[in-house]
Amino acid sequence: MNLPVDSIGTFVALGGTFHTHLDEKERAYRWPDLWIVPDTAVIPDGDPIRIPDSVEDIKPGSELTAVIGETIQDADETEAWEAIKGFTVSNDVTASGDWPGWSDPDHGMITGVGYKLLPTFSPILTEYVPKRDLVEYEDLEVAVHVDDELAVEGTTALLAFSIPELVSFASKIVPLEENDVVALGDPGRPSKFLDDAESVTCRVAEVGTLTNPVERT
Q1: What is the mean pLDDT of the chain?
Q2: H helix or E strand, kind and range, residue 97
């Protein structure tokens, strides 16, 4: 099923959703982080990720991404699951160096997401697969290859929240409509960055594969 970039409405991104992230940051999440991705950040598979010279330590993040099929707001978990029409793959590209910096460098957690919202930093696969039974998403392989080398390896079994719980949570903050998407987080801990890469491929088993070239600007 096609999902052209210009057909996507609101792009909701969730962070801190995997147990690996919780362990990495030594945080106890009561709920995920949430931010809205600007249109300038969203590009289709095959378009280049353009990395400004001013940023460094660029992390890739392969994310199972829900495609919404009907309007929901303040939905419970059953309503949230019923509103999903399919899934695709997105890449949560993140500049993790000192720029643009933290709003409070002494704070125990990151307090801004500007380093994720740069132009071209949210590639998305422009095809989605129709939703299957929920149990089929409980242990899907999630991987990133940077220049054909494995950089991230994980599974949706490491999610700290269920898919219905995540979409329900998003709907309580942002009203969701058809062709909105909700990126459900990534396992984190990449072994390779994109700073000097030529390409990056994100894969979620049985959902899809997203590949983008990487350029320095």
Answers
A1: 91
A2: none
d(CA 208, CA 48): 18
Q: Are 5 and 42 in contact (CB under 8 A)?
A: yes
Residue with token string 């029409």: 85
Contacts of 107 (CB under 8 A, 6+ apart): none
3-state SS track over the chain: CECCHHHCCCEEEEECCEHHHHHHHCCCCCCCEEEEECHHHEEECCCCEEECCCCCCEECCEEEEEEECCCECCCCHHHHHHHEEEEEEEECCEECCCCCCCCCCCCCCCCCCHHHCCCCCEEECCECEECCCHHHHCCCEEEEEECCEEEEEEEHHHECCCHHHHHHHHHHHCCECCCCEEECCCCCCCCCCCCCCCEEEEEECCCEEEEEEEEEC
What residues form DSSP beta bridges with 178? none
Token pair 């991404």 is found at 65
Which of 89, 70, 33, 66 lies closest to 167 in space, CA to CA? 66
pLDDT tens digits for 75-86?
999 999 999 999
The token pair at 7 is 């057909």
Q: What domains, with CATH codes, occur in the chain? A: 5-216 (3.90.850.10)
The pLDDT-based confidence of 109 (bands split at 50, 70, 90) is very low
